[in-house]
């Protein structure tokens, strides 16, 4: 008599493999206020984006950000030379993607308006100097665009609101040689 250790009837269906839903990794993500121009795939699946925002009076500049690790840059070198071409942005993103071992993360949720306002205030404080007044350029917000998920118009409205509420910190005046408003962060008070 044969002893069967494992028996299975022919009527038992094969277990079906169901793939667990994964968070969207960034292959198609286009948050408000951002124009994604290139995407690169990191070694472990994280997406590296090359993106820009509305062209300001100073032209179009690009930024690079990894959606798996904290890496982001708006400059070619440590000397704060803005990324002026999509090609250069692609080279920087590709270099990061070939070395990055980060897994994909959940995409950042769109913040509420109060949180977005705080991101704008933090950027302005980071740009504020102690020895002279500083013009505000929209390119200064490139690194914050993925977290803000707001349009250029929203950022400009927020800058105007801050200038109205805190004129000792930020001023607004019409541009001399171009349409629009020029915002200036006033120097830190001397102690």
What does this structure look like?
- The chain is of the alpha+beta class and 191 residues long.
- 24% of the residues lie in helices and 17% in strands.
- The protein is built from four helices and seven strands; from the N terminus they run ββββααβααββ.
- The chain has helices at residues 86-97, 113-127, 145-148, 152-165, and strands spanning 35-41, 47-52, 62-66, 72-73, 134-135, 170-174, 181-185.
- A four-stranded antiparallel beta sheet has the order 1-2-3-4, with helices on one face.
- The radius of gyration is 24 Å and the shape is elongated.
- The mean pLDDT is 86.
Biggest β-sheet strands, sense, barrel: 4 strands, antiparallel
User: What best-fitting shape do the alpha-carbon axes yield?
Assistant: elongated
Helix proportion: 10-25%
C-alpha-based Rg, rounded: 24 Å
Strand content: 15-25%
Number of helices: 4
What class, by secondary structure content?
alpha+beta
**Strand order in the sheet with the most strands:** 1-2-3-4
Distance between the termini: 98 Å
> Low-confidence parts, pLDDT < 50 over ≥5 residues?
none
Total strand segments: 7
- How would you spell out the order of helices and strands? EEEEHHEHHEE
């Amino acid at each position: 008599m044969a002893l069967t250790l494992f028996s299975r009837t022919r009527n038992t269906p094969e277990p079906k493999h169901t793939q667990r839903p994964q968070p969207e990794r960034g292959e198609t993500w286009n948050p408000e206020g951002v124009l994604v121009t290139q995407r690169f795939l990191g070694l472990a699946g994280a997406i590296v984006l090359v993106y820009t925002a509305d062209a300001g009076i100073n032209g179009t500049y690009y930024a690079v950000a990894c959606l798996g690790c904290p890496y982001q840059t708006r400059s070619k070198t440590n000397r704060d030379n803005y990324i002026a071409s999509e090609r250069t942005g692609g080279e920087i993103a590709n270099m990061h993607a070939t070395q990055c071992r980060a897994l994909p993360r959940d995409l950042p949720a769109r913040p509420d308006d109060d949180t977005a306002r705080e991101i704008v205030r933090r950027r302005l404080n980071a740009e504020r100097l102690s020895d002279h007044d500083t013009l505000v350029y929209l390119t200064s917000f490139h690194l914050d665009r993925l977290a803000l998920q707001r349009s250029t118009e929203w950022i400009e409205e927020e800058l105007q609101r801050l200038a109205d509420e805190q004129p000792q910190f930020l001023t607004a005046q019409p541009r001399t040689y171009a349409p629009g408003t020029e915002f200036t962060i006033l120097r830190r008070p001397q102690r």
